[in-house]
Structures are given as structure tokens and as C-alpha cells.
UniProtKB/TrEMBL annotation:
<dbReference type="InterPro" id="IPR011990">
    <property type="entry name" value="TPR-like_helical_dom_sf"/>
</dbReference>
<protein>
    <submittedName>
        <fullName>Gliding motility protein</fullName>
    </submittedName>
</protein>
<keyword id="KW-0732">Signal</keyword>
<feature type="signal peptide">
    <location>
        <begin position="1"/>
        <end position="19"/>
    </location>
</feature>
């Protein structure tokens, strides 16, 4: 009974201690221990496991300056969603079940980090702010504020970041561990802001408080890289030496030694043989088996500094073939090949293809990849038109020959390709080592070239060519002679050929076209020839335009445009071609006036004619405002039936302000006057020219509708106008052009269009509608996860005035991104109870314009600007 009584007392005491409400010593002790070593501990362990996996999965790129923080890998975060959810549940239990424990605030901090990692940034900010306000632990508050600072930097909220930095700078008793994280986060802040000196200063302070030798090695390596980039070789060498301490990974050690040697000796050495021997020794070192591409790449960069372009290119090509552990190195190799081909040889075609190869090795989200993609835009267009001209021109030349001549050329082409493959096989043939025992062998003629068939690439190539001539291209399969071939696979798998693979030769030969395949490519009907000529006409013009404006190759631009006007004298692009030739000759101090004369004789009503006649005409925003006013006057005169008066105003506007955003509208209005005052044939002719040369797709579509009543059914199908249910084109004219009537007022709008500015997407709703669209927030979140998962979009709301509540989706880095979101939202977003009128009235707006809108509260004024500028 005594034992039972004591046990009952213990149970009662234990039960009392379990209470999360009673704040007694026993209760606090119980909840502190249980919260710490159960819920909080397990939640923290799971979170750290995910952080460790992010670190392990990240592949450092030592050829570039390492980032201060290893970036979050969204793929790893998503893969570990279950583990993170478990961590979240455990941290929540520590809060709910142990309310009086001292680990509640620490658990809230874990929840904030979980929100941060899972891109729930608003929730993370709120949680961190809560911990900072409520926690009684200075260390936890400091830790929380430092993580909040990093979040602000991630989001580009530098004003909030500055406030946090200022607050922390006034705090006392910050622990060494927190100081380490603070200075590292400050380095990240300066890194994001492009302040190189700030990064170096912050990392120098970080080292003072570092307790992890491996992390210290990494920071020393970053400092060394940054000092090397700034030209402080002595400091760079010192920090590369420090980076070798702390047992770093072999790859970092390799790069630290390589770069240390560069800044200490290689860059300044005049003994080229010594430098080359150093690279040769690195290449031969078996420990560097997976870094051979890096060694050759660095050697290529060294030879480039010596001015040996040919050797540099050879080494870069070798580096592209060498094994390596970091695929991005191959991307940098191809990028360097592109750079040399562009700078030294002006070979745009080779540059484009090297950049294509570079992108296959560099992640699309990498800043280098974004830079390459941007650079490639004009090169892609160049190659498209260059290769089309080359190909179509050859095909049209062949089309003029007789069948026998075509066949002979095809045979000669195949023969030349076979000869080329044989030459390449001879180049690949490796001489065999001749030993003293060769004379003792029965087959003692295995000299410098092997006679054994599968050791002799030339014999293999010749055999493959002879086989193809006799039997054609056949799949590589057993028993191919048998009549019962249907019982076997007709598409046997062929291994990917390699340099040492016996199938490589046959694979190359099998790709050669047959005579019939070559002849089939030659156009043999008027329609095919017409198509090729239309493509050639377009490509000569587009290539000339590209060479002049984007590639700054004025002489080559003139060659292409002159070819266009000579070969295709009836081209609809001729007026603009004359104008570009005028500009080109003017730049080269040539005979530009000849094109002024041609424009005035052949195209007196062209905007380009007005431009060359008045080269000093006003331009820019002032010209746009003034031409808008004249457009409005001409528009009103036209609809009042004063056609001659309208025509005079249009001509005056085009002469004074020849090339503005209003030019296309003025010309179309002038064509409409032609429809009222001139012959039907002239009206049709001007509309067709406008459709072919128009730049504004909306106005071109309108011109198609105006042309439609004058066409037969066959001509309508060929024109392929847009689908509009309008039987009378005049109705459409009234609607479309009347919408532009207010352009002069728009020109004086308080809003300014900035393509590169940060934008937001706005939904404007009456407060009563917010309750009706009860699932709006959840549906927006799902919409973002499905279609914009990488964008890290946030949703906020505010009351702009009593009549309007607004929802804001942000951020979009530029206008183009915002327009992409707007377009997808209009087409695909749906939510129960969400009014269509709100959807159709949504808009995108830059931050600067939103501040202006917030002052005026005039949504209609901004929507007018939005429809004209963004749509």
C-alpha cells in the first residue's frame, strides 16, 4: 500500500507538471526539457539535414567568383517537402504543447526559417519580426534580425535592409557566432549591391569570427579571387595560401594552387617554356584526371595573353574534348571561342553556334546564361538569314540547270564528301609502335599503319563508302541479306559513336545523302521557286537592316540592300531599303543623295521620303506630342468630310515629324482619304503596300479588314485576315481610330513608360466583392505554383480609398515579365465568385507610376495610359 501510495503521488505530480498553464518551477522544468529535447531538437535536426543537402548538392564553380552564400536550391527544397513539413509540425508542437517553456521563441524562429526556405516571404518576415519584439534572449533576437536582413537582401528591399543594419550596429553584446553571421550577411548585402570594396571589407571581418576551418577556407578563397580581379596579386596570393588550410575539398585546393601560382609567377614570367611546362605537369598529374579541361582552358587563356590566337583556339578546342567534373567549364570554353571568333574574325555564324554550345552546359538561370541568351538574339537572326540566302541562292541556281547537269553536280558533291571523310580518317590514323620483335612475327608488315581491318580507320572508311555505293544506306543489323528480314528489327539500335569506336566511321558515312535525296531538294515548280524568292527577298532586307543597326557592319549592310533593290526591283520593302542605304552612305561619306532622289521619284508618299527631305526634323517626345495634335486635327477633318484639309494636315505632320509613333496612323488615315477621293485600284494598291510594310500589328490587321471587301474569296484566304465579325469595315475604322483620338492628351499623361523598371500587377475591387471572391487568394497561390513557381511572386492587399480595395502581385523585374503574367492571367486564371469585370480591368504598373496613381486615385486615367502603352 505504501508503494502504491507513493506511485500515485508521483503520477499526480507528473500530471500536474504536464500542465502548460501552471507557471511553477516543476512545470517550467518539465516543459523546458521536453520542448528542447523532443519537439524543438527534432525540428532543428530535420531542418539542418535539408540545409546540409542543399550545401552538398551545390556544385561550386571555381572559375568564377564564388557567391558569399550558397543559393537556395528550389529543387532540393521541393524534394524535401515532407521532411520540412515534419519539422514545421514539430516546431508547432513545441509552441502549442509547451507554452511556458523558454524554447517557444526558438521554435518560432525555426518556423520563420521554414517559411523563408519555402518562399513564403511575407510569413517569414512577420514571424521574424514577432520573435524580435517578443523574445527575451538577446542572442536569439540578433540571430533573427540577421536572418531577416538576409531575407530583405534576397528580396531587394534595401531600405529595410539599411534600417536593420543600422539597428544592429547600435546593439551591444552580440555574440561571436552572431557577429560571424552578421558580417557574412553584410558581405552578401554588398555583393547584391555591386559594392566590391564592401564585400572585401565585410569578409575580412567575417574571418575574424569564423570558427569553422572549412568555411574559413572558402571565405579566404573568395577574398583571394576578389583581390586577383582587382589586380592586388600579392594579397591574392596570401589569401590563396590561406585557402589551402582547413582541409578544403581537393577541387578548391587545386584551383587555389593554380591561381596562387598564376598571381605569384605565371602572369609575370617571361620564361614561356617554364610556364608551359607547369601546365603540362598539371595535365599529366593523375590526381587532376577530372580537371584536365580546366588545365587546358587556363593554358589557353595564358596563350591568349601572349597574342597567339591560333594556339589559343587549338587549346580551347582541346579543352572542349577533355574530361572534367564541372560542366560549366565547357560552357566557358565555348563562350571564349565565341568571343574570339567575334572579336578577331567577325565570324557571326561561328559565334552563334559556339554560344549555342555554351548554353547546353550552363544553367539557364545562371547570369552568364542570361547574358549569352541576350547576346545571341541578333546572331540567331543573322545566321537564319545568312544561311537562307546561301541555301536558296544555290537551289535557284541549280533549278536553272538541266536534269543531267543537276545529277552530275550531286554526284560530284557526294564524291567530295567521301574524299573529305577519307582525309579525316587518315588524320585520325595513329601510327603503331614498331618493336624489335616485329621481324619475328609471321605478319611482319605491321609498320606505321596497321593492316588489320578494324585497326585501320582508312580501310574502314573506304569499306563503308564501297558498301554504301553497292547496297545504299542499310541499318546495322545481323542477317540483313535474308529475305525473311521482316522477322527482325528494322531499326536496330546503333551505339553513339566515339573517336575510338569502330562504328564511328560507318555512322558518318550513313549520314551522307543519296543522289535522289539531293535532287529532291531542287525546286521544280513555279510555286516552289516563288517561295524561295520571297524568302530571299525577306532575308536580304532583314540581313541588311540587322547589319546596319545591331552589328554596325555598314558596308556589308549596303551590299545586301543593294542586292535586294537590284534583284527584286518590285519589292514592297524598297522604300525602307532606300532609306537604310541613304543612312549607310551618309555614315561612310558616300553618295547618299542618290537615294533621296530615288525615294522622291518612286515613293513620294513614303514616310522615309519625308524623313530624307527633312533630316533635321524634330524627334523624340516633343515630336510625338506635336504629331499627336496634328493627327487629332486630321482625324476630325476626315470624319467631317473635309478630305483635302485632312490630307494637307497629314502631309504637314509627316514633313515636320516624319518618323514618330504616330507615323503609321497618319499613313493609314491618308490611305482612308485615298479610299474616299481616288480610284478603287489606287486605294487597294496602297492598302496592300501598307500591309506588307506595316510595323504595328493592330493597324496592319485593321488595314486587312479595310482591304477585305475588294478581294475575291481566293484572295481573302491568301491574305489570311484576322477574324472579326464586321461586315462593314468603316465601322471598324470608327472604333479603332477613334480609340487613338486622345493620344495628344495621353502624351501629356503624368505616367511614364519604363521597360526596365520593376512592375506590379493590380486587381481593383469594391470591398463588397472581396467577400464574394472568397477563394481568390488560394486560387492565386495555386495559379502561381502552377505557372510561375520560379518567380517567387507575393500577394498583398490594401485599401486605396473607401470605394476600392486592391490586390497586388509582385515583383516583376521588368515590363515584359509583367506583360507575360497579365496575358496568362487573362487567358487562364479562374476563381469562384471572381467577377469578369475585375479581371478585364486589371493592369500592370511600374513602382514609380503606382506612387503617382496612389496620389491621384484616378484609375481610369491610368487604364487609358495602360491600354495605349502596354497593350
Amino acid at each position: 500500500m505504501k508503494i502504491f501510495s507513493r506511485l500515485a503521488i508521483v503520477i499526480l505530480l507528473f500530471s500536474a507538471a504536464c500542465s502548460s498553464e501552471r507557471n511553477t518551477f516543476t512545470n517550467r522544468t518539465f516543459h523546458n526539457v521536453t520542448a528542447h529535447f523532443n519537439a524543438y531538437y527534432l525540428a532543428d535536426v530535420k531542418l539542418k539535414e535539408v540545409e546540409a543537402e542543399v550545401f552538398q548538392n551545390y556544385k561550386e564553380d571555381y572559375t568564377q567568383i564564388l557567391p558569399v552564400f550558397i543559393p537556395f536550391d528550389s529543387a532540393t527544397i521541393q524534394t524535401n517537402a515532407e521532411k520540412l513539413q515534419s519539422s514545421r509540425e514539430l516546431a508547432s508542437k513545441a509552441i502549442e504543447w509547451h507554452k511556458i517553456s523558454k524554447w517557444v521563441d526558438d521554435s518560432y524562429y525555426l518556423l520563420g526559417k521554414l517559411d523563408y526556405y519555402q518562399s513564403q516571404f511575407d510569413d517569414a518576415q512577420n514571424t521574424f519580426k514577432y520573435v524580435n519584439v517578443n523574445s527575451k534572449s538577446p542572442d536569439l533576437r540578433h540571430q533573427t534580425l540577421i536572418t531577416l536582413l538576409r531575407l530583405y537582401v534576397d528580396q531587394g528591399e534595401f531600405e529595410n535592409a539599411n534600417f536593420t543594419i543600422d539597428y544592429l550596429s547600435k546593439e551591444n553584446r552580440i555574440s561571436d557566432e552572431n557577429r560571424y553571421e552578421l558580417y557574412r550577411t553584410l558581405a552578401y548585402y554588398y555583393e547584391k549591391r555591386g559594392d566590391k570594396s564592401g564585400v572585401i571589407g565585410a569578409l575580412d571581418k567575417t574571418i575574424e569570427y569564423s570558427q569553422d576551418k572549412k568555411e574559413a577556407s572558402r571565405i579566404n578563397f573568395i577574398l583571394a579571387q576578389r583581390y586577383q580581379r582587382e589586380g592586388f596579386d600579392a594579397l591574392a596570393f596570401e589569401y590563396y595560401e590561406k585557402a589551402l588550410l582547413g582541409n578544403p575539398p581537393y577541387e578548391r585546393s587545386f584551383y587555389a594552387q593554380l591561381y596562387a601560382q598564376q598571381v605569384a609567377e605565371l602572369n609575370a614570367s617571361k620564361d614561356l617554356r617554364k610556364v608551359r611546362k607547369y601546365y603540362d605537369d598539371l595535365y599529366e598529374d593523375t590526381k587532376n584526371r577530372d580537371l584536365k579541361d580546366v588545365v587546358i582552358y587556363e593554358r589557353a587563356l595564358f596563350e591568349e595573353k601572349q597574342g597567339d590566337t591560333e594556339l589559343t583556339l587549338d587549346l580551347l578546342h582541346q579543352a572542349a574534348k577533355e574530361p572534367g567534373s564541372n560542366p560549366r567549364v565547357k560552357g566557358y570554353v565555348y563562350q571564349k571561342l565565341a568571343e574570339i571568333n567575334l572579336a578577331v574574325f567577325k565570324d557571326y555564324r561561328a559565334t552563334k553556334y559556339y554560344l549555342d554550345s555554351a548554353l547546353t552546359y550552363i544553367n539557364e538561370t545562371d547570369p552568364v546564361a542570361i547574358e549569352i541568351t541576350s547576346q545571341k538574339e541578333s546572331l540567331d537572326k543573322y545566321v537564319l538569314h545568312f544561311e537562307r540566302i546561301k541555301g536558296n541562292d544555290s537551289l535557284l541556281t541549280l533549278a536553272k540547270l538541266s536534269t543531267e547537269e543537276q545529277k552530275l553536280i550531286a554526284e560530284n558533291y557526294i564524291q567530295s564528301e567521301e574524299d573529305r571523310l577519307l582525309r579525316e580518317a587518315r588524320a585520325l590514323q595513329k601510327p603503331q609502335i614498331t618493336g624489335i620483335f616485329d621481324n619475328l612475327l609471321a605478319f611482319n608488315d605491321r609498320g606505321s599503319v596497321s593492316t588489320f581491318y578494324f585497326d585501320n580507320s582508312v580501310a574502314m572508311q573506304q569499306g563503308a563508302i564501297d558498301f554504301r555505293r553497292t547496297y545504299g544506306n542499310r541499318p546495322l543489323q545481323d542477317n540483313w541479306r535474308r529475305s525473311a528480314v521482316s522477322f527482325q528489327s528494322s531499326t536496330a539500335a546503333i551505339p553513339e559513336p566515339t573517336e575510338n569506336d569502330s562504328l564511328a566511321i560507318e555512322s558518318l558515312v550513313s549520314k551522307l545523302p543519296s543522289i535522289d535525296e539531293l535532287l529532291a531538294q531542287i525546286p521544280n515548280s513555279p510555286k516552289q521557286i516563288e517561295t524561295l524568292n520571297l524568302e530571299l527577298e525577306e532575308s536580304y532586307f532583314e540581313l541588311g537592316k540587322l547589319l546596319y543597326f545591331e552589328l554596325k557592319e555598314t558596308e556589308r549592310s549596303i551590299d545586301n540592300l543593294e542586292t535586294l533593290v537590284r534583284v527584286y526591283p518590285n519589292s514592297s520593302r524598297k522604300p525602307e531599303a532606300y532609306y537604310l542605304l541613304y543612312l549607310g552612305q551618309k555614315d561612310l561619306a558616300g553618295n547618299s543623295q542618290q537615294y533621296v532622289g530615288r525615294l522622291n521619284r518612286e515613293f513620294p508618299d513614303s514616310q522615309y521620303t519625308y524623313s530624307v527631305n527633312n533630316p533635321d526634323a524634330a524627334s523624340g517626345n516633343l515630336a510625338y506630342v506635336e504629331s499627336s495634335k496634328k493627327y487629332e486635327l486630321a482625324y476630325n477633318a476626315y470624319y467631317d468630310g473635309q478630305y483635302e484639309s485632312s490630307k494637307i494636315i497629314i502631309k504637314s505632320a509627316l514633313e515636320e515629324y516624319p518618323l514618330t509613333r504616330n507615323t503609321a496612323r497618319l499613313l493609314l488615315l491618308d490611305i482612308m482619304i485615298t479610299g474616299k477621293t481616288d480610284t478603287r485600284l489606287r486605294y487597294r494598291e496602297r492598302l496592300e503596300n501598307y500591309i506588307q510594310n506595316g510595323q504595328d500589328p493592330n493597324l496592319v490587321d485593321l488595314a486587312r479588314i479595310m482591304l477585305k471587301p475588294m478581294l475575291s474569296q481566293a484572295e481573302i484566304e491568301k491574305l489570311n485576315p484576322i477574324e472579326l465579325n464586321a461586315s462593314d469595315s468603316t465601322i471598324v475604322e470608327n472604333i479603332e481610330l477613334a480609340g487613338d483620338k486622345g493620344d495628344s492628351a495621353l502624351a501629356e499623361s503624368p505616367y511614364k513608360y519604363d521597360e526596365s523598371a520593376t512592375h506590379i500587377f493590380v486587381l481593383v475591387m469594391e470591398p463588397k466583392l472581396v467577400d464574394v471572391a472568397k477563394n481568390l487568394m488560394a486560387d492565386l497561390e495555386n495559379f502561381h505554383k502552377a505557372d510561375f513557381s520560379k518567380e517567387r511572386l507575393r500577394i498583398g492587399n490594401m485599401n486605396m480609398n473607401r470605394e476600392n480595395a486592391i490586390f497586388i502581385i509582385s515583383p516583376f523585374t521588368n515590363a515584359e515579365k509583367a506583360k507575360e503574367y497579365y496575358s496568362k492571367f487573362q487567358k487562364e486564371f479562374n476563381s469562384e465568385g471572381f467577377p469578369d469585370i475585375v479581371k478585364s480591368n486589371s493592369f500592370v504598373i511600374s513602382i514609380a507610376n503606382f506612387q503617382e496613381l496612389n496620389k491621384t486615385k484616378n484609375f481610369e486615367e491610368y487604364r487609358t495610359f495602360f491600354k495605349s502603352t502596354y497593350k
